[in-house]
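Predict structure. Chain length: 221.
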Amino acid sequence: MPLLFDYFKYAWIDFLKQVEVRHRYYKDAQFSAIDRALLRIYILRSTYRLSKNYLLQHNEKDVHAYGETPLTTFEKIAKEVNLLPSDTLLELGCGRGRGAFFLSHFFGCKVIGIEKIPIFIKMAKHTAVKFNVERVSFHCLNMLDMKLPTANVIYLYGTCLSEKEIEQLIIGLRSLPSGTKIISISYPLTEYAEKGFFHFEKSFSVDFPWGKTDAYLQRIN
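Prediction complete.
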C-alpha cells in the first residue's frame, strides 16, 4: 500500500509541475514544440520503467535511481550561477535531455548531456535533429568511466551516488581547468576532495518532486 500511495503522490506532483511548465514556458512557441515532442515520445513508456529495466539488466544495486530535475529548478540554478550564452554546461546524467533543451533555449548556452541509458540519448538526439537545435549535444556515456568533455559549468544531480562513486567522479573532474563551476545537489563536493581542490562559493535552496534540498556551487581552484 505505501508503494501505491507513493506512485500516485509523485504522479500528482509531476502533473502539477507540468502545469507550471506550460504556464511559465510554453508561451515560447519554439520551446513548447520541442518540449511537447520530447514528452510525447514517452507517453506510452515510462522513463522510470525504462531506467529500472536498464539498471536491472546491468545488475545495478539501486534500480530506482532515476530522477529528473524540474525545469523550474533548472531556471533557478541557471540564475544563481549567472549562466551566460558564452558558457558550456555539462550535465552529468541528463536523462531524456529535457533540461539540456531548456537551458540552451532560454539561456543561450551550449549544453552537453551525457547519460548511460541508450534510449534516452537516442530520443534526445532525434529531437535535436528534428528541431534543428544546434547548441545541444548528447553522448551515451557513464560519467564514472570517462574523461569528461571540456565545459566551464558542470551540473551534477547525484543524490543516489555512493561515496565511492563520488570520489571516482572527482578523479574525472581533475582534468577540467581551474575556474570550472560545479553545481551539486544535496551535498557539497568539498567533503570528498582534499582541502584546496575546490573553492566553495555558496548554497541555495531548490525544489524537487520529493521535497526541498540545497544546491552547492563550487569552483575548481
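Summary: The mean pLDDT is 91.
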